[in-house]
Amino acid sequence: MTLAPFGARLRQALDTRGQLCVGIDPHASLLAAWGLGDDLAGLESFSRTVVEALADRVAVLKPQAAFFERFGSRGVAVLERTVEEARAAGALVLMDAKRGDIGSTMAAYAEAFLSPGSPLFSDAVTVSPYLGFGSLRPALDLAREQGCGVFALALTSNPEGAEVQRAVGADGEPVAASVLRQLAAENEGAAPLGSFGAVVGATLADAGVDLAINGPLLAPGIGAQGATMADLPRVFGASVMNVVPSVSRDVLKHGPSVPALRAAAERFVGEFAGAV
Ligand SMILES: O=c1ccn([C@@H]2O[C@H](COP(=O)(O)O)[C@@H](O)[C@H]2O)c(=O)[nH]1
């Protein structure tokens, strides 16, 4: 069964479930705070609890692949189950893998996350365009074919990102602006929302680039990194309704209580609605 385009599925999820993405980031410190071991059993219990608490109510869940990969193949098996169970419960899953490579290697990454039948099949994946935007072509094409989404890093939430992303190319165009322009081209004519998104940190003082890409804008940095929902209208301007605010630690710190995790997510959904 072919999925409807990711952008349409995402728009509907945001409109019905509220504008929020919660990250599944099993940091060692969070496992300890939840009374779990920094081991496979802890990883499994943490992920299961987040899915149980949130997958039937939050628009997007974003597992951070690195926290699973650090446990090797058995950690990846937990990631596979997490993705499957989250999707079965109705959440859209955005795999935060930030992959990027050339030609057939990029095609293999795309297959891993965007090919139906793959054990890690997700609704969307984060990618790095810093081997050149054109290197993402296999992922963009497979996503379009399968009703999936791709989120390219444009202006990340970390201060170090600026040295690359704000750099100005020989043609005078800043690197991030070029990424955003090319995403806009991928989304041309899509309605209600394109499937090709950008990662733009909520922590930015000023985006300073055109964010009107007709696609989703994943905004990490809220909570533990210091940004708040109230910052979003200033950073994203007229594109704020296409923002997918992303929070990991500031929701997860309320676990392992399922009601407390739900209440935290609900609070962030309310704060977004109040801010825009
Ligand atoms: O620019 C970026 C891109 C990705 N991230 C990821 O989002 C979460 C943020 O976690 P918090 O606990 O809410 O700070 C994490 O997985 C990052 O790798 C980002 O922060 N910034």
TrEMBL record:
One of its GO terms (biological process) is 'de novo' pyrimidine nucleobase biosynthetic process. Its EC number is 4.1.1.23. InterPro entries: Aldolase_TIM, OMPdecase_AS, OMPdecase_type-2, OMPdeCOase_dom, RibuloseP-bd_barrel. The keyword Oxidoreductase does not apply. Keywords: Decarboxylase, Lyase, Pyrimidine biosynthesis. It comes from the Bacteria. Pathway: Pyrimidine metabolism; UMP biosynthesis via de novo pathway; UMP from orotate: step 2/2. Residues 19-264 form the Orotidine 5'-phosphate decarboxylase domain. It is an enzyme of class 4 (lyase). The active site is at K98. GO terms for molecular function: orotidine-5'-phosphate decarboxylase activity. PROSITE patterns: OMPDECASE. It catalyses: orotidine 5'-phosphate + H(+) = UMP + CO2. Belongs to the OMP decarboxylase family. Type 2 subfamily. NCBIfam families: pyrF_sub2. HAMAP family: OMPdecase_type2. This is Orotidine 5'-phosphate decarboxylase. It comes from Kitasatospora xanthocidica. The gene is pyrF.
